[in-house]
Amino acid sequence: MACSDLAWPPLCSELGAIPISGVHHDLFEELHISEPRINDRIRVPEVRLVGPSGEQVGVVRLEVALNLAQEADLDLVEVAPDARPPVCKLMDYGKFKYESDMKAREARRNQANTVLKEIRFRLKIDDHDYETKKGHVERFLSAGDKVKVMIMFRGREQSRPEMGARLLQRLAEDVSELGFIESAPKQDGRNMIMVVGPVKKKAEAKSEQRRRREEGGVNSRAERQRQRQAAAEESKKPVAATEEVPAAEVVEPEAPAVAADAAPVTPKPRPKAAAAPKPAAQAAPKAPAKPAAPRKTSAKPAPKSE
Fold first, then answer.
1. What's the rounded mean pLDDT across residues 187-203?
2. Cα 209 from Cα 110, distance rounded (Å)
3. Are 175 and 136 in contact (CB under 8 A)?
4. Which one-letter DSSP state was computed for residue 172?
5. Confidence of residue 22 (pLDDT cuts 50, 70, 90)
6. How far apart are CA 37 and CA 59, in angstroms?
7. Are 85 and 59 in contact (CB under 8 A)?
8. Beta strands in the chain (DSSP E)
9. Is the pLDDT of residue 14 over 90?
10. Which domains does the chain have, with CATH numbers?
11. Do you find a cis peptide bond into 85, omega within 30 degrees of 0?
12. Which has the least CB within 10 A, 126, 137, 149, 181?
């Protein structure tokens, strides 16, 4: 490995390079760089120049190509370094790099990796369970994936493989609009296997799903915009003036006329209501009498007979 005296001596010593006097090597040439060389990084005497619109200019000196790029406010990019002389093009390198990144991102988005899904059935499956699993198979096929359908036999069911074949054939007929039989049913030990492939490719299914999602988003945004406009128009409408309803007059009843010579009437006192009789005080319940203690009888011993 050789290095020039004009390059960085500390880096040359670290890399173990041998400096050679009189030979100039660019540091970017020593290290491997995947990006193309532009402008002053190009180290050749002559280049084959291509204009910004793709027109062929011809073989020119590097200084002339750099002057043309500076006058057009563009970059001189080496697009084919292995050609003799190398091919360079006048372009906006920042825009070119951005477009290249966008193309690579779009290619990764459209990249389709088909996945093999697996779903299992029992021989004596119920109708409701069959419909549920069939829905899963349809969802997998709509997404562009393959489906491996497996029927598991238990006990004496292994002696009736034709029933498993009929079940798989029924499933294939039910999903015929979305998939086709890629691998016919075959016995594999205690299981029977069939592979169903999708009609649509993975890339087509992904692009269709993305288009539906974008259309749904556009529709929902448009609907929200219409609702906001309707609410704004409703708020701008003038409010109708409400007529004031006169309050109803309250007419108080007139007091009866009293004659001048009439004696004043004194109100009679109201009779007092009879006081309610107080409830008789209930006697406290007596405590139960204690049983009398049994009398103690002194038993005298009988006299002994002589």
1. 88
2. 12
3. no
4. H
5. very low
6. 18
7. yes
8. 2-4, 18-20, 46-50, 56-61, 75-80, 87-91, 116-122, 146-152, 179-188, 191-198
9. no
10. 1-34 (no CATH), 40-98 (3.10.20.80), 116-203 (3.30.110.10)
11. yes
12. 126
Q: How many CB atoms lie within 10 A of CB 37?
A: 20
For the chain, the residue count is 306
Q: 27 and 8 in contact (C-beta within 8 Å)?
A: yes
Task: Please name which of 164, 83, 182 lies closest in space to residue 121, comparing C-alpha atoms.
Answer: 164
Q: How far apart are CA 183 and CA 96, in angstroms?
A: 47
- What is 97-114 written as a DSSP string? HHHHHHHHHHHHHH----
Handedness of CA 123, 127, 129, 130 (dihedral sign): positive
**CA distances (Å), 77 to each of 85, 89, 305, in order?**
14, 5, 156
Rounded percentage of the chain residues whose pLDDT exceeds 90: 20
Structure tokens at 18: 């041998």
Q: pLDDT tens-digit profile of 242-252? A: 455 555 555 55
Cβ–Cβ < 8 Å for 48, 65: no
Q: Angle at the Cα of 29 (from 28 to 35), degrees rounded to 5? A: 65
CA distances from 110 to 97, 197, 199 (A): 20, 20, 18
